[in-house]
Automatic annotation (TrEMBL):
Pfam families: CobU
Protein name: Adenosylcobinamide kinase
Catalytic reaction(s) noted: adenosylcob(III)inamide + GTP = adenosylcob(III)inamide phosphate + GDP + H(+); adenosylcob(III)inamide phosphate + GTP + H(+) = adenosylcob(III)inamide-GDP + diphosphate; adenosylcob(III)inamide + ATP = adenosylcob(III)inamide phosphate + ADP + H(+)
Gene Ontology MF annotations: adenosylcobinamide kinase activity; cobinamide phosphate guanylyltransferase activity
Its biological purpose: Catalyzes ATP-dependent phosphorylation of adenosylcobinamide and addition of GMP to adenosylcobinamide phosphate.
E.C. no: 2.7.1.156, 2.7.7.62
Keywords, in A-Z order: ATP-binding, Cobalamin biosynthesis, GTP-binding, Kinase, Nucleotide-binding, Nucleotidyltransferase, Transferase
Enzyme class: transferase
Domain of life: Bacteria
Pathway involvement of the protein, from the record: Cofactor biosynthesis; adenosylcobalamin biosynthesis; adenosylcobalamin from cob(II)yrinate a,c-diamide: step 6/7; Cofactor biosynthesis; adenosylcobalamin biosynthesis; adenosylcobalamin from cob(II)yrinate a,c-diamide: step 5/7
Family: Belongs to the CobU/CobP family.
Keyword Nucleotide-binding: yes
Amino acid sequence: MKVLITGGVRSGKSFHAESLLLAEPHVTYVAPGPEADVDSDPEWAERVAIHKSRRPAHWSTIESADLAAAIRAAEGAVLIDCLGTWLTSTIDELDGWDGLREDWEPVLFERLDETLAAMSEHQGNLIAVTNEVGMSVVPEHRSGRVFRDLLGTVNQRVAQECDDVLLVVAGRVLKL
């Protein structure tokens, strides 16, 4: 089973993703971005602590922006939380926020292709969590528009690899 779970911020998508894997004997939680600086951002620290407190003790964690490698190194079921974090981290690494998209976007899509291949090869259950950012106002700044557009593309490509896509709104789950 491969599932993509999308929804707005604090919609309950991570909680639902975790609940789908509670019966699994081993889960690898993949945090696909740089480790958050929880010391400088108390709100972020609280969110990270809440997520960690919900995870069973037998789950392992991989924190890496190399999402394909993390999936390949994972044992058992995989929970990726979240693709928006991976995209942000990748754009950061490629210095893409202010650069020309044609200079860095091909590398981003190569990494996405490699991630999709790793997802396809994974034999266990895999759940990917992402944000749905295209249902609101058009961002004022270029970086917001670039992120929104690329995350929409990432979400579509990942959805093609999945058996199911779920939309979480206000804690309610809709199968798409």
